[in-house]
Design brief:
Elements (H helix, E strand, L loop, with lengths): L6 H7 L5 E3 L6 E9 L14 E5 L2 H12 L3 E6 L7 E8 L13 E9 L5 H18 E11 L4 H12 L4 E8 L15 E8 L11 E5 L12 E3 L2 E7 L3 E3 L19 H11 L5 E4 L6 H8 L3 E6 L2 H20 L7 E8 L17 H9 L2 E5 L2 E5 L2 E5 L8 H13 L5 E5 L4 H6 L6 E5 L16 E2 L2 E8 L5 E9 L21 E7 L8 E2 L2 E4 L21 E11 L4 E10 L2
Parallel strand pairs: 2-26, 3-15, 3-16, 4-7, 4-14, 8-13, 14-15, 19-20, 20-21
Antiparallel strand pairs: 1-2, 2-16, 5-6, 7-9, 8-9, 10-12, 11-12, 17-18, 18-19, 21-22, 23-24, 25-27, 25-28, 28-29
Helix pairs in contact: 2-3, 3-4, 5-6, 6-7
Keywords: Methyltransferase, S-adenosyl-L-methionine, Transferase
GO biological process, one term: methylation
GO molecular function, one term: N-methyltransferase activity
Amino acid sequence: MDKKATNKLNKEYENKDFFGESDESTSYTFVPVEAFHEVEEAGDRNSLEVNLLIHAENSHVMSALKRDYGGKIDLIYLDPPFDIGSDISIDLSFGEHSSKSAPKSNLFRAIAYGDHWKEGSESYLEMLQTRLLLCKELLSERGSLYLHCDYRSTAYMRLILEEIFGKKNYINECIWHYKTGGMPEKLGYGRKHDTIHFVVKDPNKAIWHPQKEKSYLGHKYGFKNIEIEKDERGHYTWTNLRDVWIIPALRGNQPEKVDYPTQKPEALLERIILASSDKDSIVADFFCGSGTTGVVAERLGRRWIMCDQGDLAIHTCRKRLLELHSEVKNKNATARHFLILEAQEDETSGNLSKLYTDYKESYIEKVFEVIGASREETGLFQGRLKGNPCYLVDLEKNATKELVLKLEQSLSEMGEETGWCISFNFDEKLTQEFTRNQAIRLIQVPKEFFQQGRKSAPVFYEIPLCKFEVLHQLDDSYDVHIIDYVPAATINGNNRNDNLKQNPSDFIDMWAIDFDYIPGKHFHYDWCDFRSRGKRSLELSSSAHWKYSQAGIFTIAAKIVDVSGVETVSLQQIKING
């Protein structure tokens, strides 16, 4: 899309306070960090038909959404963790092998999300109750909520829903029946279903479009005044959809299958969205996982909001949505644009860390315990990691270039060669000028560190590095070629470091270019390429053939996302003559 056509959109999204709350108890907002535009112009922010993929803890997101979306969401689908008591992991592949065909040397295990609760089922139910109360505030008067669970919690879920929404607003206990999994070890019947609870805000106003299904007959005789049809299975008549849904669970060879555990079939979400929303309704999923809700809502012409805290979940959603946009574009149609948002520090209060209040008191102890660092006050450093001095930046502050220079000076005075700087946030200037040969190496505190429900420790990564060159074509267009990439090494956790000895570019799962990036603003996708289960190759040179419409100095940004969802952005300036 021509950059001029997105200028109006870009100006709208530069507003720091895209949505959120700013009172003393919740001093945080959510702002765009990535933009995918498919429309030519936009009016004021509140009228934008924009879809949102939000990378943050869902209770914070729902609280912040109340200002602009309270009473406006027609359908909420929730597929939360099931209180299994363990972490949910997946084998990820890299390079040109899919996860199904990859040799063990091209696989490593990663945790998608945690489902372990410190106080057991009681804290799990409290977590869900808090979010269901927020859902009620977000639902419109015509709104419906579908809560997906299994045998572990379904009885509790119904009681909580009836308490929050009222018994008269509890409509159905729907059963999703499938044939895979669930075989008992010694005693009991095979578990072959999940439960989906269906409640509404107001039964007299709720959106409801009855769906039909085939009801097969033993014979076609004795039935009057009904139309009987026949297919390969036999005679049937059409009847209103019942509350037992027979929909196959996804298998590895199905085209819609992605590398994310607990992915739900598109047919399941299509049934829910068609029944309980209208065209242009807003559909929300606050445990979005693989992104099925957003993909189906987009295909059916609904607006959507999705949220997840996991890097892998957001990356999986992003790729599915990009693939869907490509499909739509190939059919000469237009999909709604979408934004990826994250929580951002409110510059007036400087308190992004209010999102993580529970961690402030023992932050350094908890981080050091997870990464295996010991406390040892030397110079500016607070401890040692892998034998080298390490420094943890306060949760309320960013790691800056000035801080790293001070740490390098302290390191030199101590007679040490290598040290670590660990931080939750890094200034963009620092990461852009960072090189692999610096004495101070950078470690990212992952968002998953603050996530509830994890049994095992989240993985901490070194900041990955990328270098690219700008290609000036004969037709006066521009492209980008990646010439060096250093993947993020793990400090603790999974076995991916053993695989880094292979071709580093194999770890690139997606990369994208913004040919007119404004530092400090969101990244706009002008070109991208990514791997999927069906397409494992990845070009290291873009094919954008980008042409600038005016002279000036422009910043080109290349965003690299690896197989675990770990991101890095590299910048380079270019001068365009008139």
